[in-house]
Amino acid sequence: MNKKKKIICFGPGTKFKGGIANYNTSLAKSFDKRKDTETHIVSWIQQYPAIVPREFIDKESRANQLEGTRIKEVYLTDFNNPVTWRKTADHIISLNADQLIIQWYNAMQGLPLSRMVKRIRRNSDVEIIFDLHFVVPKENSNLDTFFTKMGLKTADSYIVHSLKTNEELNQLFPDGNITLSYDGLRANEGKTSLKLYHPIYDMFQPDTTFDKGKFKQEHKLRKHVFLFFGFIRKYKGLHQAIEAFAKLAEKRDDVSLMICGESFWNTLDSSKLSTKIKEATFGLLKKLFLKKEDDEKNYRPLELIKTFGIEDRVMLVNKFVANEEVPQYFQAADSVVLFYLTATPSGIESISYNFNMPILATKVGHFPETIEDGFNGYLANDRDINDMVRVMDLSIEKPIDRENVNSKTKEMSWENYTAVILNKG
Q1: Do 275 and 45 contact (CB within 8 A), yes or no?
Q2: CB 9 within 8 A of CB 73
Q3: 141: left (phi > 0), else alpha (psi -120 to 50), else beta?
Q4: CATH assignment of 5-200+411-422?
């Protein structure tokens, strides 16, 4: 009998909110479904410096995401406590795993991860794979490149979700001898970049009892509904989506916009002294290291709803949406709006595909790779509000066949994803 491969998925565990936690959990569950693997989740306790003024724990969702699985989950790593870095490394070494898959999504984590991986490498033969959600950060501070190189140079292999990410990886390490692989086979020399994708989130299943008509009536939604979903961040371009929608609403009276998501930097009680200290300290560091145009301190796109006078056209759910509540918003909408300023493969895009939702996106990042204009969605010119209005209107006049969306994403399953990772040859 062949020995089971032991897989460690390192990243935020099920207690955390957000796309990366969902991603890491879904990846682990996909490995767990196989008969030839044993799966572990090793999670952060605290993912970022203590001064970051934000709540990261999911206090809304109720379901146990690991119920019915064999996955063993532990919380060990505190960004602020180097003792836990060593403790985490030693735990991973003790598991004697075949593959360690590290979720890479924040440059600051390059410091603890590089220290952990170096210790693991000295005491283990595990293949160290960095699953890259970005290479060039969305907020590109002066320190980001330094920490990114520090973390990523320790890998044996990489996973990239788009060719653009692979290009950025090679630009970061021009002499890295990184071979691109589509089938999972590793290069004989140097390092390997596994070209994959952002798999379809199957953790959010359509509710067969959902009454779309009743929901729209209760929330005063009009015939055609556009959805913006997820954390409200500047790079996601919600201000563009609101302005474009306002212009569309000037010429159509049959459209509504749903905005469902938490304002990323507005999750703590601002009246508390601890929050004020964090905000002041974090604000000072941002001024020192962050480009002015990347600072989100004064990013308040929701104020545009009143500015444009479209309060009666917008349904606003300005909070973190519990996992159990996610399906209703996608099932009530006709298309998802991703008018991003910059884009790496998006968890929101993957959730949308699970509901066979057409995507309206800007021609930035990886979107031209995954969205075939006129087939499974529509693409608008970057930072061109009038063109965004055009594609929103076009999505109504020439609606996308949802079977097209389904056919475009058939191969983007977690099952195929994990098979490529395991195919070392």
Answers
A1: no
A2: no
A3: beta
A4: 3.40.50.2000
Convert the pLDDT of each residue in 1-26 to its tens digit: 568 999 999 999 999 988 899 999 99
* Interatomic CA distance for residues 387 and 380, integer angstroms: 5
**CATH class label, 212-263+302-408:** alpha beta
Give residue for tokens 């990410």: 165
Query: Can you list the positions of beta strands (E) in 206-280?
Result: 224-229, 255-260
Quote the tokens at residue 119. 């210790």
CB 2 within 8 A of CB 422: no
pLDDT at site 269: 44
Side chain identity at residue 155, one-letter code: A
Instruction: Name the average pLDDT for the chain.
Output: 89
**What global pTM score does this model have?**
0.82
β-pairing, 335-338 vs 359-362, is: parallel
Q: For 83-135, write each residue's pLDDT tens digit.
A: 999 999 999 999 999 999 999 999 999 999 999 999 999 999 999 999 999 89
Q: What is the rounded distance in angstroms from the CA atom of residue 327 to the CA atom of residue 215?
A: 12
Going 159 to 162 to 163 to 169, the CA torsion angle's sign is negative
Domain limits, the chain:
5-200+411-422, 212-263+302-408
Give 403: exposed, middle or buried? Use CB within 10 Å, 0-12, 13-18, 19+: exposed
And the tokens for 341?
């300023």
Instruction: Decide if 50 contacts 80 (C-beta within 8 A).
Output: yes
* Local confidence band at 272 (pLDDT 50, 70, 90 cut-offs): low
- Is 415 exposed, middle or buried, given 0-12, 13-18 or 19+ CB atoms closer than 10 A? exposed
Q: Give the type of residue at 71.
A: I
The C-alpha atoms of residue 301 and residue 266 are separated, in whole angstroms, by: 13
Nearest to 355 by CA among 340, 376, 379, 378: 376
Q: Are strands 127-132 and 359-362 parallel, antiparallel or unpaired?
A: unpaired
List, as one string, the DSSP characters of 183-202.
SSPPPSSSEEEEE-------
Q: Do domains 5-200+411-422 and 212-263+302-408 have the same CATH topology?
A: yes
Q: Three-state DSSP class for 125? A: coil
Q: Can you tell me which residue has the tokens 């089971």?
A: 4
